[in-house]
Structures are given as structure tokens and as C-alpha cells.
Amino acid sequence: MSKAVDQVYALLPVVHRQRDEEAGEPLKALLSVIAEQIGIVEQDMTRLYENWFIETCDDWVIPYLGDVVGYRPAPEIRERGFVDYESPDTQGAVFVSRREVANALRFRRRKGSLALLELLAGDVAGWPARAVEFYRLVAGTHGVKHHVMSWNTMIDLRRGDELDLLNTPFDVLPHTVDVRRLASRLSPGRYNPTHVGLFVWRVRSYPVGRTEAAAVDMAKGRYRFDAFGHDIPLYTLPIEEPEPTHIADETNLPVPIRRRALRDRLADYYGEGKKSFCIWIDGVKKPVDLKDLVSADLSHWNYSFGKSQPAVVVDPELGRMLFAHPPQTVQVAYHYGFSADVGGGEYDRSMIHVVGKVGTTVPNPRPYQVSAGQNLIATLQQWQASQPTHAVIEIPSSGKFDVGAVSLSLGPNQSLHLRAANRARPVIRGAVTVTVEYGSRLTLDGLLLDGTLLVQGRQDITQAEVQLRHCTLAPGKGQDASPSLMLTRLGKKAVIDSSIVGPVLVSQHEVRTEPIHIRVINSIIDAGGDEATAVGAPNHEVAHAVLCIERSTILGQVQVHAIDSAADAIFTGAIHVDRRQRGALRFCYVPAESRTPSRHQCQPDLAEQEAERQLRTKQPAATPEDVVVARQATRDRMRPSFTSRQHGMATYCQLSASCRSEIVRGAEDEGELGIFHDLHHPQRLANLEGRLNEYIPAGMEAGVILAS
Q1: Residues 126 and 65 in one domain
Q2: Eight-state DSSP code of residue 73
């Protein structure tokens, strides 16, 4: 601002400036006040100029610029406003892409072209897509004079690759005509001369850098790609389409790699650099040669190696490897599928600051880094020996660290921030025990822990804090699964943010201590089953804890002292709360047999009330037994359905296409309930469906089909 004051002051005649200096510069002080307003006006003029252009304008200007080019939002969301989904701070309910408004005229010039629909899906919803003209797949009887339909012949059973793609977005085989509408919600049809389908993928392909593979049986050369030893499909690293008119194929989309596709086009998927996966053995820098690799079905780990057979067999659909000669070490780089930046992963995430004693940011915490060739244990021992008040231990690269059973200790008001570097995905194998004292703070950021994390206080009055951020703690696998997070005598609070964890058990004295506060945000707590305990105490008792849950999915039962608040969440297991006079649940799915605080706009409560109202309208003399039957049928119908509940799968905890709209649009902002609320899938889908008919030829019917 001093520069603006000098500029205004320089406009005055010299005589006035001289007299002002003699009087102690009162005029200059007055101009400093005026200069502030001048600066505000200049900034406003700059913003007015930038608001002339769609690339630089504010969000509130987008509808006005869209109106200039005749842009109209989809009818379903026309009254909800404009929000740019590309902005990381977006929390609105409706997404209208800035790019779509910018490209409105260009899209209209290309109206009727098939490739335009794929561009539209990317600009409107941010989803990769493949457009299919179903009339090309409709079989028909051929006349002698009509050779134009020669491609619609009978199926050739010798073409294995085409049969492998049957009823997928890449299907090329002829089908009998389907008279059902493509946009039907109950039973959509596909293969009709007037139908154009737009397959969209809601999952993304995430990379995993060079890391150690999980050994199943080293003596027999059996390995899995996944760090937790799960069977997961390997995903394609999508490559850019060669030209705007190109229709996306398997190499351009985040799809699982098929066994037959890998066998026929191995060079497209395997190798270093920008390839889908790669394998190294025995610490050699050069990866396994392409000619030594083959694709096969390893469902039963059966493969007969001959003298001229390759050395490595890969099953991309299960993520398995079988070696003819068992190596000492196996390292892999690959891609997996998932819906969002949740849990540990090689995606971009902001680094948080170390918090001091009174909640202030620590400017210079003691840094430690796990250098190349140094194990994590040595770095932890170095930190333990120094005992700095505030420290940050950073793991700079992806890899696997076996720590066994390691014990750490934090002193009073001491903090430890153990984190992965940005875009790193380290895996820690072992049981980690952290002993804390009054005022201690432990933060885990960006880590995958294959084992149990135990945080315990030295005494009942310990007031310590624990934060898990973008972490994955191995989820549970059944009723008697061991917990992934145990909090004993913690005293203060725990935060689980953007993480995937297994059962959480709390051991806190119910008389001498206040309940621990646990906040769960954008996370998944997976107990392995609806009857298993997701949040509770040992021996299936009630945890002395108070929960605050936002936009999360809880797979299992919850048994706690109280719930202060829960919003936009899904609970698949029953909830038991001791203090039901405290707190409230809003816009959640809560099983009907739960004992909770007051519920507002929750399911299936609303659906049951509506079902009873409709029953009494149709049958005024309905008996109480009829009402009970109607309520039970509604409960069964309203239960959330997931595409997959197996951790490691790309569609893990994703609401299925058959899930009820009351769940898919059950949040306060009409978004979906659960972990993926902030992705705003319903709004994106509604906006895309509303735009399709504007860009297809007359007489055609277009529909969006969820490929994942």
C-alpha cells in the first residue's frame, strides 16, 4: 500500500509537498487512507476485466457467461446454481464445468458426432467414457440385395477375444433387438437401432511405485502384487487418445487388464516408465524381460512350466505371479483402481503442519528422513535417542518396511508426525505400540499399516491426541478379526480423516476419566461384517467414547457412550448408544434395530413412515400386523447395497447402481450418503444425462451406463 501512497502523493504539486513535509506530513497521512480505497477500486477493476473471460472469471459469473452463449444447465438441477467441480474447495451440490461453458459453441458445431459424447462426459462430469452406437450391434436377417448389414452376422465361436468382451463396453458381437428403453430406471435396454450408450467410469487408476510384492509361498514362487496379500485386479494406465475423433478403447480407460488382452498385447501393458505394471527380481535394476512373461489363469496356482516356457506367469485379473525358479526378492510397480483419494496412496495431498502445545503451529520441528538403504527402525531409534519436543519423520518413497513389534514412547507435550512424502505409498508391516503422556500428539499421514496400531496412555488421566490422515490400517475380516486401531487410556481425542481402518477398540476407565472424543471424517471403518464390532470396547462391551461422524461409511456395529453428531453417513450394523439424550443423527442410514439419539431425516425411518401412510391410504382398515409387514419390507428394500465390500477392489464401498435413490440422494445436499459424498456422483450423473439429448441426432435416444 505504501507504493500506492507514493504514487498519489507524487501527483501533488511540489509546493504542497514541501509545505506538507514542514508540517509533519499530515497530508500524506490523509492520502494513505484514500490510497486504501484506490487500491480496492483498482483490484475491483482488475477482477471486472478478468470476469470477461471464462478462463479467469469468478464462479458466480459462470451462469452469466453461459447465458451469453445460450448455455442452459440440465433441467433437474437448473434451480440449484453453478459450481465449478474442478475447484478443490467446492462443497456445492451441483457441478457445472467451466470447460463445458467454454466449449459450448465448439460442441454445437460437432453436434451428432460420436466422439463428442466422450468429450462431453469429461467436461460435464469429469469421467472418462466410451460412446457406443448400439445399432451397429443389432443383428438382422439379410436380404439378397442388402449387403450393407454384412457385419451383423452370427457369432464366430473361434474369436476368443470378441467373446471375452461380450456384454462389456467393448462388445463387438451382434445381438437381437432390445425393445426396452435405454433410459429406463427399472430395466434398461441396450441393443436397439435408435440407442446410443455412453459408458462412464467412476473409478480412477492409481499408481504404486516400485515396492516389494507380497509372498504367498516363496518356496513355490507364488506372489501377489497387493501389499496386504489380497487378490486385486491390475488396472490399465490410460494413455491419451491419438486424435479428437478417436473412440476410446481399453488402453485409453481405467479398466482392469484382461488375461487375453495381456497375452495378445503384452508390450502395451508391461514395462518401465508409462506402462501399467512391471516386475523386478533379486534386486536387479533391469526388469524381467518381456519374452520371459506370459499371461495365464492362476486361480488355483496351477501352471506347468516346460523347457521353452517363460519364467514368470502373471494373472492380471487376480494380481498373482508364479515363477518357474523362485527368486529371493520380487519387486513390482503396478496400477490399481479406486474411487477417491482415500487411504494411503501415491496421489497429491497437502502436507499439514505440526501443532504445538496450545494449538499453534510449530515453525521448525526436528526433521528426520528415512534415506535410501536405511530402514525405518534405525530412524525411529535415532528419534527416540534424541527425544526432540516436536519432530517429523518422513518416508520419501514407496516401499515396504518390516518393523516387527516396535514400541515408541512420547513424553509430556511431545509430538511426533510420522508421514509419507507427497505421492509416496510406504507400507509398514508389524505391530506398532505408542505410549503417550499428558499433552502428547501422534500423527500418522499417508501410511499403510499391515498390523495393529496400539496407542496407550501411561495413566488414566492422560490427555493425548491421535490423528490418522490418509492412512490405511488393514480392515477386519470377520466377527473375531483383530482390531487395527486400539486406544487405551488416551483421554482426549482421536481423529480419523480420509482413511480406511479396521475395527476400532477403546479401553477407557468409565469412572475416573471423561470419554474419549473420536472424530471420523470422509473415512471407512470396516469390521468385516455387519455383525462384527466396528467401534466398541474389548469383549464386545460399550466403548467409553463420544463419536462425531461426517460423510463416512461404517461397516459393522457401533457400541459407544454417546454420539454428538453424525451426518451424511452410512451405518450397516446396529448402533447402541448409552446416552441417547445427547447428540443427534442427521441424514444418515441407520438400521432400524439401533438405539440412538434423536434422528432427523434418516433412513429407513422416512421410508417406513411413507410406506405406512400409503398403506393406510389404500387400506383404511389395515391391521397392526399389516403395518409391521409393510415396515419390514421397506427396511429390506432400503438397505444400502455396495458394488463390492472387499478391501482392495476398485469399487470398494461404492454404492451399486441398484441402490435405492433414497440412499444415493439421501444427504442434506441431495448427494449420496457415505464415504464418497464429496465426489457428488448423483449431481454429475444428472447433469450429464440432461446434456446428452442436446448433442445427439434427432430420433436417437442416449443414455448413461455406469461401467464402474
Answers
A1: yes
A2: -
Q: What is the rounded CA–CA span in Å between residue 212 and residue 313?
A: 17
For residues 90 and 34, state if they share a domain: no
CB 120 within 8 A of CB 679: no
Residue 300 domain flag = yes
Q: Give the helix ranges, DSSP H, for 285-436.
A: 376-386
Cell 514412547 found at:
409
Query: 84: domain range?
Result: 59-140+147-202+684-706
My answer on whether 163 and 273 are in the same domain is no
Angle between helices 605-618 and 624-638 in degrees, nearest 10: 140
CA dihedral 180, 183, 189, 190 (to 10 degrees): 130
Q: Residues 273, 198: one domain?
A: no
Number of Cα atoms under 13 Å in the Cβ half of residue 305? 16
What phi, psi does 357 have (nearest 5°)?
A: -65, -45
Phi, psi for 316 (deg, rounded to 5): -70, -25
Buried/exposed 267-294: b ≥16 CB within 10 Å, e otherwise: ebbbeeeebbbbbbbeeeeebbeeeebb
Q: Which of 304, 338, 372 is the last residue of a domain?
A: 338
Is 103 a domain residue? yes
Is 573 a domain residue? no
pLDDT along the chain (708 residues), means of 10: 67 79 80 78 83 85 82 60 44 57 81 86 88 86 60 73 89 86 81 90 93 91 90 93 88 94 93 92 88 92 80 93 90 94 90 67 82 77 89 89 88 90 90 90 92 86 86 70 86 91 90 88 93 90 93 94 94 94 94 92 90 86 85 90 92 91 90 91 86 82 88
Cell digits of residue 220:
513355490
Using alpha carbons, select from 279, 272, 206 the residue that is nearest to residue 237. 206
Within a domain: 355 = no
Amino acid letter, residue 101? V
| This model's pTM is above 0.70 | yes
73's grid cell: 444447465
Write the DSSP symbol of residue 203: -
In angstroms, rounded to a whole number, what is the distance separating the alpha carbons of residues 370 and 327?
27
Burial class (CB in 10 A: 0-12, 13-18, 19+), 593: exposed
Q: Are residues 189 and 223 in the same domain?
A: no
DSSP states of 273-321: SSSSBEEEETT-SSPPPGGGEEE---TT------TTS-SEEEETTTTEE
Please give the Cα distance from 667 to 569 (Å, whole number): 8
Peptide linkage before 604 cis (omega within 30 of 0): yes
Give 535's strand partners.
504, 558
Number of domains the chain contains: 3
CA distances from residue 388 to 365, 432, 441 in whole angstroms, order as listed = 8, 20, 13
**CB-count burial class (<10 Å; 0-12, 13-18, 19+) for 643:** buried
Whether residue 315 is found in the same domain as residue 236:
yes
**Is the separation of the CB atoms in 565 and 583 below 8 Å?**
yes
The distance from CA 660 to its chain's CA centroid, rounded to whole angstroms, is: 21
Nearest to 341 by CA among 422, 399, 261: 422
Residues 216 and 276 in one domain: yes
**Crossing angle for the helix pair 2-10 and 26-50, nearest 10 degrees?**
110
Q: What angle, rounded to 10 degrees, do the helices at 26-50 and 14-22 form? A: 130
Same domain membership, residue 158 and residue 260: no
CB-based contact 528:502 (threshold 8 Å): yes
Q: Which spans in 177-288 are helix H?
A: 259-264, 266-269
Quote the CA–CA distance of 524 and 105 in Å, as a whole number: 42
CA torsion sign, 251 to 335 to 284 to 322? negative
Give the residues across from 431 on adjacent strands.
Answer: 405
SS3 content of the chain, % helix, strand, coil (to 5): 25, 30, 50
Q: Nearest Cα to 197, choosing from 214, 211, 212, 178?
A: 178
